[in-house]
């Protein structure tokens, strides 16, 4: 296990299970004009996240209440949530943010929208998994972002996902999510373009890379809001789609599928979900209490058991689904220059939105 985890952390991925559902907002004491109450011990903690789907938000809220922490969860897609926190930085509404990937947290850090706090469990996570330079954000969960299909239906899947976008026999048979305000669609875009960088190309990308992106969006079947990927697969609307690895087991159980994955030679992108205290919220003591609680080995172990996640906290790994641990130890991590991606992603998203999505 030690060798596997060292390998997994050698190339640090960016995060992303993204959720666009706005949850919570009931019974809280949030001041809409800024701040989250008076910062006293009875103040409701406002928790921002892009990882509240599939019952996660409700589970965390209930378990936190059992621990004596009153929270209100507000969920948005990763990019939208990042922009919101930055927009609010001079008059913050949220107290804690978790679930965003390293790239988004680096943006929040550079804007001084989050502030350093060393959790009690800091020694239980790999030093390079979060923000080793300054300790502003800390890792919770990691997962791979994979292209999946149902092995009950598909026996001749391609070995490289690029074949889906360029071979006409797959046209309309894979799902594409054009919602680039979400973290996972942004990560997919970054994964494609990172394989075709060219310093002389448009926005640092070769013509071949942009042609692939164009084909990806043109030939895919747009995601249907409110409809699960696996529902579409079982109805024979599509055959392939992208999902975070933590969602596979539950969907196989629900839909009766047997998930296969396309894993190219260059690997798959990974996400590492992080947590941080929002700067200047006025509820620092309770924010730190929540971070200490949620990232602990005990809670992350329970979370892993409930949601098939892969905890970063070493003390929680033994509570994770053994199949999840095995899977994460065998999926090669795509080598992505996330510094370059962070600098260029905004321009990439703008170009794709204007030229390829409309």
Automatic annotation (TrEMBL):
Record Gene3D superfamilies: Periplasmic binding protein-like II
Tagged with keyword Membrane: no
Example GO biological process: thiamine transport
GO cellular component, one term: outer membrane-bounded periplasmic space
Stated name of the protein: Bacterial extracellular solute-binding protein
CDD domains tied to this protein: PBP2_Fbp_like_5
UniProt KW Transcription keyword: no
Pfam families: SBP_bac_8 (PF13416)
Signal peptide annotation: 1-26
Keywords: Signal
Molecular-function GO term, any one: thiamine binding
Top-rank lineage group of the source organism: Bacteria
């Amino acid at each position: 296990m030690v060798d596997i985890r060292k390998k997994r952390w050698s190339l640090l991925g960016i995060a992303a299970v993204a959720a666009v559902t706005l949850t919570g907002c009931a019974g809280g004491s949030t001041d809409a004009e800024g701040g989250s109450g008076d910062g006293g011990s009875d103040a409701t903690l406002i928790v921002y996240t892009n990882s509240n789907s599939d019952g996660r938000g409700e589970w965390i809220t209930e378990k936190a209440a059992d621990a004596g922490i009153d929270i209100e969860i507000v969920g948005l897609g990763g990019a939208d949530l990042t922009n919101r926190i930055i927009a609010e930085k001079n008059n913050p509404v949220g107290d804690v943010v978790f679930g965003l990937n390293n790239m988004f947290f680096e943006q929040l850090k550079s804007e001084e929208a989050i502030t350093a706090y060393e959790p009690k469990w800091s020694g239980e996570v790999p030093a390079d998994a979060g923000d080793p330079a300054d300790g502003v954000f800390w890792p919770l969960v990691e997962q791979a972002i994979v292209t999946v299909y149902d092995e009950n239906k598909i026996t001749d899947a391609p070995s490289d996902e690029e074949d889906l976008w360029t071979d006409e026999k797959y046209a309309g048979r894979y799902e594409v999510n054009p919602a680039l305000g979400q973290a996972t669609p942004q990560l997919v875009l970054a994964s494609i373009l990172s394989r075709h960088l060219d310093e002389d190309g448009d926005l640092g990308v070769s013509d071949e890379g942009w042609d692939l992106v164009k084909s990806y969006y043109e030939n895919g079947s747009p995601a249907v809001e409110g409809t699960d990927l696996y529902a579409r697969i079982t109805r024979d609307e599509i055959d392939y789609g992208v999902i975070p690895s933590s969602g596979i087991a539950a969907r196989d159980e629900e839909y009766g599928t047997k998930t296969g994955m396309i894993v190219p030679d260059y690997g798959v992108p990974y996400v590492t979900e992080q947590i941080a205290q929002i700067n200047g919220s006025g509820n620092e003591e309770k924010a730190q209490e929540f971070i200490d609680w949620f990232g602990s080995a005990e809670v992350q172990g329970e979370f892993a058991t409930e949601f098939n996640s892969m905890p970063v906290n070493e003390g929680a790994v033994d509570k994770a689904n053994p199949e999840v641990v095995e899977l994460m130890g065998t999926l090669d991590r795509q080598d992505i220059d996330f510094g370059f991606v962070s600098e260029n992603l905004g321009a990439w998203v703008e170009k794709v939105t204007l030229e390829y999505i409309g």
